[in-house]
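Hi R.,

Here's the chain you asked about this morning:
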Amino acid sequence: MTLCIAALSSKSCVVCADRRITSGKRTENEEHDKTIVVFADDGKAVATFSGLAQIRHRFDTHKWLLATIETLGVSGVPQYTLAGVINGLNAALTHEFQTNPDIQKLPRASRRLSVMMAGYVFQNGRGVPLIASTSNFERPVDRIVLPEAEDAFTLQHGIIQGEASIVGFVGNGAALWPGQLKKITEASLRASPKAMARALLDQIRRASDDKRSLDLIGKQVTSVHISPDPSHGVITDYHTAVVRRDVALPAAAWATRQAPGFVTDIRVGPEDADTPDLAVPQVNKKKRRRR
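And here is the predicted structure, written out as tokens:
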């Protein structure tokens, strides 16, 4: 179980997700990508997931999502829109979880999975904010969390109108402070995307330290910013709690007429042994001043 948080408004879309995956109480990997930048003919979005991450050597949710998004753009009735991708994923998830024998062998509590997507549908040169989640165990809008997976995935989605904003999340939100989430929601219309990413990162790191998270949330975090301006690119950041040689970037998938496909396992690192490490923890300026 992980924690993925999205802050979405007419001004910006910022999504943060930790990178830890666990098996029972054991941490399996601190650097498992759970983020996908999705490009469709009519928009851009960030997909993240929480719950079943992998069945060792037999199923990997992140890789499955990438391959499925690509397939939505090339097979059957191709889906080139964000709405098509979202609806297609919902149906494909239900089919996979009902027919995959390796998933079916798991206890229902271990089959739980939620996928969240946040971004923009571009209309008349401007992005309309869109957020959606599909899950077999939680309904974020209704604040329902089930202890076991249902047979089918349920889709919830909505478009934000005007100067409204929303902060949504999937995963282990037991340690999230509602008061702070409310402040982040209110700030999302005026704060910079960089400030929003810092605020979401702080929430994930605080939740990671909280006993209620049961050590299921990591401190290695990926953040992605999408602008409502279709001419702007996607900005990503890798927030590390330890010194690392390289920087990890999120995967990307294209469900487009021109070039459906995906890329993953993207890392940028120095080739020269004398080059300093690229990923270093950020020092909290307030704490540094106190010293």
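One quick note: The domain at 3-290 is CATH 3.60.20.10 (Glutamine Phosphoribosylpyrophosphate, subunit 1, domain 1).

Cheers,
M.
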